């Protein structure tokens, strides 16, 4: 397959050695894998990622788009149900996390408004420049 835009490949490893060693150990290799094995795995993984990205770019170009979308990767991985399932699972988890963050931010904003409202009520002055407990009143900015 031809690459849409050939770029210079970075020399050396792309991924951290401990991560690659953990993968090798998880799949049954020795506790201390050979450095050559780690280097080859790094090269294999890097090539796979590059080829998958180029296939997704090709899919986007067939659709007459300049930018790659998530659906292009899904289409590229459609023949491998395990990988497609994992991608779908991770995308679903990402949506849940974003939804939870938005809900937390909304709750946080509402709680801040309640606290400011309570402070205003407590420090309400009756026009004489002093609050109910005798302190000088301060002008409180309202949060909108």
UniProtKB/TrEMBL annotation:
Biased composition (Basic and acidic residues): 119-135
Leader peptide range in chain numbering: none
InterPro entries in alphabetical order: Histone-fold (IPR009072), TFIID_TAF13 (IPR003195)
Residues that span the membrane, as ranges: none
Domain of life of the source: Eukaryota
Swiss-Prot/TrEMBL keywords: Nucleus, Transcription, Transcription regulation
Protein source organism: Cryomyces antarcticus
Protein name (record): Transcription initiation factor TFIID subunit 13
Cellular localization per UniProt: Nucleus
Family from the record: Belongs to the TAF13 family.
Region (Disordered): 117-144
């Amino acid at each position: 397959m031809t690459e849409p835009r050939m770029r210079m490949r970075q020399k050396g490893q792309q991924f951290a050695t401990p991560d690659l060693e953990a993968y090798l150990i998880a799949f049954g290799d020795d506790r201390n894998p050979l450095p050559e094995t780690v280097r080859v795995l790094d090269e294999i993984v890097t090539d796979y990622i590059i080829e998958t990205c180029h296939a997704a770019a090709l899919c986007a170009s067939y659709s007459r788009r300049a930018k790659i979308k998530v659906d292009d990767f899904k289409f590229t991985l459609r023949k491998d149900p395990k990988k497609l399932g994992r991608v779908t699972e991770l995308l679903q988890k990402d949506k849940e996390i974003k939804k939870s963050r938005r809900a937390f931010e909304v709750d946080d904003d509402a709680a801040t408004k309640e606290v400011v409202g309570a402070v205003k009520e407590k420090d309400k002055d009756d026009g004489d420049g002093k609050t109910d407990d005798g302190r000088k009143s301060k002008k409180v900015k309202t949060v909108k």
